[in-house]
From TrEMBL:
<dbReference type="Pfam" id="PF07729">
    <property type="entry name" value="FCD"/>
</dbReference>
<dbReference type="InterPro" id="IPR011711">
    <property type="entry name" value="GntR_C"/>
</dbReference>
<protein>
    <submittedName>
        <fullName>GntR family transcriptional regulator</fullName>
    </submittedName>
</protein>
<keyword id="KW-0238">DNA-binding</keyword>
<dbReference type="InterPro" id="IPR008920">
    <property type="entry name" value="TF_FadR/GntR_C"/>
</dbReference>
<keyword id="KW-0805">Transcription regulation</keyword>
<keyword id="KW-0804">Transcription</keyword>
<dbReference type="InterPro" id="IPR000524">
    <property type="entry name" value="Tscrpt_reg_HTH_GntR"/>
</dbReference>
<dbReference type="Pfam" id="PF00392">
    <property type="entry name" value="GntR"/>
</dbReference>
<dbReference type="InterPro" id="IPR036390">
    <property type="entry name" value="WH_DNA-bd_sf"/>
</dbReference>
<dbReference type="InterPro" id="IPR036388">
    <property type="entry name" value="WH-like_DNA-bd_sf"/>
</dbReference>
<dbReference type="GO" id="GO:0003700">
    <property type="term" value="F:DNA-binding transcription factor activity"/>
</dbReference>
<feature type="domain" description="HTH gntR-type">
    <location>
        <begin position="12"/>
        <end position="79"/>
    </location>
</feature>
<dbReference type="GO" id="GO:0003677">
    <property type="term" value="F:DNA binding"/>
</dbReference>
């Protein structure tokens, strides 16, 4: 029935909107690790029914951002330093596989004509420039948004939707893990990595050696920073 179909689409859209809003609340530090809440509380907060809220919370639990409490509700997942190390390793394995594909003449880069390739990479680079500006300014919220868009659009260039989704989910988890520590710093200027445009430029040149070096510095920078903050 047309009515049922439209209702299903509306509910699905609402479910995604709620999931996105709650993810942003976690990334902004307004929902803290370990903080508990119920489906009813979230439904009242957003003025919607319980069903799309419950579905959104289940989705975020499947992504590792929330945990379900038996018969009580949900709480924001608390990641450890070992979790962060594991995420860094997983991210490195994924991006290294992407770089190996590029070294081997990945079909997406072969099939795109030069103007289209340049336009696509230029779009990625613009996201990187915005991320760089936010990092230099110490604006963590803006940085996270552009960092996620940068890597999402970059991974899409490799033509594998599963790869792009997996890397995006992993990067969201990494930010959820680190944001609780980074927001303890009152001034983040000079503390946040800002080499996104250089990564885009290196990959456009197919200079994977430089791209790997940049990401090694990226991962090492944040690992050292978070280790120091957790020790404090």
């Amino acid at each position: 029935m047309p009515g049922s179909s439209n209702g299903s689409v509306t509910r699905s859209t609402l479910r995604q909107q709620i999931a996105d809003a709650l993810r942003d609340e976690v990334l902004a530090g307004r929902l803290q690790p370990g903080q508990e809440f119920t489906v009813k509380e979230i439904a009242e907060q957003y003025g919607v029914s319980a069903t799309p809220v419950r579905e959104a919370l289940v989705d975020l639990s499947a992504q590792g951002l929330l945990e379900a409490d038996q018969h009580r509700g949900f709480h924001v997942h608390e990641y450890s330093l070992d979790d962060f190390r594991g995420m860094i390793e997983a991210r490195s394995l994924v991006t290294d596989g992407m770089f190996q594909a590029l070294d081997a003449g990945h079909r997406i880069f072969q099939e795109l004509d030069e103007p289209r390739t340049a336009a696509a990479v230029a779009g990625v680079r613009r996201r990187g420039e915005e991320a760089q500006r936010a990092a230099v300014a110490g604006d963590l919220t803006v940085l996270i948004g552009y960092d996620l868009r940068f890597w999402r659009e970059l991974s899409v260039l490799f033509g594998n939707a599963y790869l792009a989704d997996f890397l995006h989910r992993l990067r969201v988890q990494t930010w959820v893990c680190t944001v609780q520590h980074l927001r303890r710093l009152t001034d983040l200027r000079g503390s946040l990595w800002s080499g996104h445009p250089e990564v885009a430029d290196a990959l456009y040149r197919r200079d994977t050696a430089t791209a790997r070096k940049l990401l090694t510095a990226y991962n090492g920078h944040y690992l050292t920073l978070i280790e120091g903050l957790t020790a404090d």
